[in-house]
Design brief:
Layout: H1 2-6, E1 9-13, E2 16-19, H2 20-23, E3 38-39, E4 42-43, H3 57-74, H4 88-117, H5 120-144, H6 150-166
Antiparallel strand pairs: 1-2, 3-4
Helix pairs in contact: 4-5, 4-6, 5-6
C-alpha cells in the first residue's frame, strides 16, 4: 500500500538507494481533480522537466532523452512517452544560423574586398580576421566561464555582423 510505495527505489547514487520517501511521499487518498491533461483525445500525465540554474540546457535535454529510453522500456506496453516541447531545437537552430552567417559573411566580405580593392593581401587579411576574431571570442568566453545561451548567442551574432561590416 502507501508504505510500500514510499519504499520504492527510484535511483541509486554512489551505491546508496534513493527512495520515493527521500524526495517526496506517496499518499493513498482521493482528491477532486482541478486540472486535467489531454494528449489528443486521451488523458495523459505531464512532466515538466526544467534545468537547474547554471546548467547547460542542451546537455540536460540530451540526458533526459537518454533516460526516457530506459523509462519507456520499464513502462507497460500500453503507456507511451511523448516529448511535447524541446528547447534544444531552438538552440541548435541558433548555432546553425550563427555558423551560416559566419561562413557566408566571410565569403561575401572577401569577394567585396577583392572586387573593390583588388589586392590579394587585403582579401587574405579580411578572410583570416573574421574567423580569428570569432575563435578568440569563444576562447575568451570559455576562459571566463560563459556558456552558450540566448544572450551570448545574440552577442556573438551581433559581433559577427560588426566584424563582417568592418572587413
Amino acid at each position: 500500500a502507501t508504505e510500500d510505495s514510499n519504499n520504492i527505489v527510484i535511483a541509486t547514487k554512489d551505491g546508496t538507494p534513493i527512495r520515493v520517501s527521500d524526495v517526496g511521499r506517496a499518499e493513498d487518498g482521493f482528491e477532486r481533480p482541478t486540472t486535467a491533461v489531454w494528449l489528443g483525445d486521451k488523458p495523459a500525465v505531464m512532466l515538466d522537466i526544467r534545468r537547474a540554474m547554471g546548467e547547460n540546457t542542451v546537455s540536460v535535454i540530451e540526458s533526459v532523452r537518454e533516460r526516457l529510453k530506459s523509462v519507456q522500456k520499464a513502462l507497460a506496453p500500453s503507456v507511451t512517452v511523448t516529448v511535447i516541447r524541446d528547447d534544444s531545437k531552438f538552440i541548435y537552430a541558433s548555432v546553425a544560423s550563427l555558423e551560416e552567417h559566419l561562413i557566408m559573411g566571410s565569403l561575401f566580405a572577401a569577394i567585396v574586398v577583392m572586387v573593390f580593392i583588388r589586392n590579394i593581401r587585403a582579401v587574405i587579411i579580411a578572410s583570416l580576421a573574421i574567423p580569428a576574431s570569432i575563435i578568440a571570442s569563444f576562447t575568451l568566453m570559455n576562459v571566463m566561464g560563459f556558456s552558450l545561451n540566448n544572450m551570448t548567442l545574440l552577442g556573438i551574432t551581433l559581433a559577427v555582423g560588426i566584424v563582417i561590416d568592418d572587413a
